[in-house]
Amino acid sequence: MPGLEPPMSDEDYIITRAKEAQKHNIHSAKAWMLTAKTLFPSNFKIQFEAYLMEKQSGNVQEAAECFSSLMMSRQNLPDLLSEISAIANALKTTETSFLSQMFDNIIPDIQLTILKTSLENSDDTMEHCRLLVLLLKKFPQLGVDSLVKTLINAEKFFYDNRYARLLVVETLPLLSSLESPRLLQRLLVKAIDFYNSYVYDETEHDIADPWQRLYGVLDLLGRQLGWDSYLVNYSNSLNKDTYFQKLLSLRNCEDCRQLLYCGTTFFLRALYEQRSMKGNHILVEALFDPDQPPPKRRKGDVEVTGASAHQFQAAANCWELLHSNEVISREFSKLTSQLQVKPWTEGFVEELALFRGRYDEALPPSTSNCLVSNIVRVSINFSLKKYAPCIENILGALPQLPNVEGALETELIIGGKNRHLHFLPLSKMPIMHYFCTLLIRILLNSGNNSDLTYGHILVLMQLGWPQEEAIFIRILDIIRQSGVFHYHLFSAYIIHIDILEELSFIWNEQGNNVALDILPNSQQHLGQRRIGTRGADKGVKEDFKQAMKAQVSRSNESILNLMIQFITSERSYLLQIL
């Protein structure tokens, strides 16, 4: 008769009663399900509903037992695929969930069946590989060789970083050994490429200590080939200098692989650390003072100071070691050509050229006129004693100075006779301090011993005072010996209290005949004579005292801004002295 529903089967009737009872009385519902399982022990629908009831009630152990029974029958396995997939997805995350807890309560044989079933029914290559990693993590005795070969040969490997990550981060730690050293070397190249790219990727920070993970891969290869355990187990606490000496000892080995892979890994790590510590700094030629003691920690013929200096020298020395002979240089070039990220192209080659004094290679292209390019030109032209272009480069850099002021650099001048380079912060004060320091040397080396030259030097040394105090004392001695000092820009630019006090002192010294022609033109005209200790004119002396008081009152002005104004305004004077 139309409208009448077909009679309900006994199984469906019991399931329906169990579901209704579950809303009000879980014990009654379980009783119904127990009855159903007893009457129909092989009925898939009843077994599955029993599992769902335990799952919905949050009963981990009972749900595990029910699902194990379903898996053992295997008759209706296709109907379980969605649940098997859900379990596999739960296991991929590190978070604890009901399904992951349930899986842990299932016996290993059935766990293996669940994972294999999920693996066999995955169509996507990436998903297949992830499930295989999951399977091998749970059952490492199955071996990872097939997965490694699948991943390393995957066509998508080179343009889909997920494959590289799956291979390097998740699969390689599962390896205990591989029969083929050639395959291990391929894996090491993949690992170097992945981790070197990863540390420069600012969007990802979820891998703890990537460099140590890379050394773990190096250790895997090294143990198989009998390499020095110190070289393949480099840790954060080990000394870079000692490690480099170990690398040096491999220069003449017939098999260059240990030097190639250990040296490349060490180089990339040192370069990354240097880049991380360097921040907004630029490598420039700095100065040395043979009258001062050299630094205690000497690294060679060239001293490097400032941020990241030690890391830079480690990278530079290792780079040169990897180019020390034709064989290792060729192999290093082949290796680096396989890496996707080459950070040394971002300034390192130019820094290295400057470090080794190869100025033609370090010089920026003529088309580049940014602040960094101008500072590099200043540095190189100064070293080549091309002083006029150096001053022009300084003048070109002044309008480009950054707004951040920064602080004075204490290591622009170091003791000793070695060539000296310094990582200069790209902020206004350090850059101007560097320019002033170079201009002082340019003026001293100009061969021009006029009062104008010495006056300019007095102006420029104010910014880095008292770093140039020894030069100041020499100038004072010259003034005393000559008995006169003419500098018409004195009132405009000399305001440092220590310099003013010293000049006032020599003016007041008893028994000396020192004439200081330093008053502004208007006051000079009124006095109509030089100010000196031999002058008895009280009016002129009073003019001098008032002028010095005026200068002292300006001692709190910004010397930094005054230096910018001086170099800009007195450009013709500076170039004329040359």
Automatic annotation (TrEMBL):
Gene Ontology cellular-component terms for this entry are: integrator complex
**Looking at the record's lineage, which domain of life comes first?**
Eukaryota
Please provide the record's keywords in A-Z order: Nucleus
**Stored InterPro entries:** Int_cplx_su10 (IPR026164)
Q: Can you say where in the cell this protein is located?
A: Nucleus
Q: Name one GO biological process term.
A: snRNA processing
Q: Which Pfam families match?
A: INT10
Its family remark reads: Belongs to the Integrator subunit 10 family.
Q: Check the record and name the PANTHER family matching this protein.
A: INTEGRATOR COMPLEX SUBUNIT 10 (PTHR16055:SF2)
Protein known as: Integrator complex subunit 10
UniProt organism field: Pectinophora gossypiella
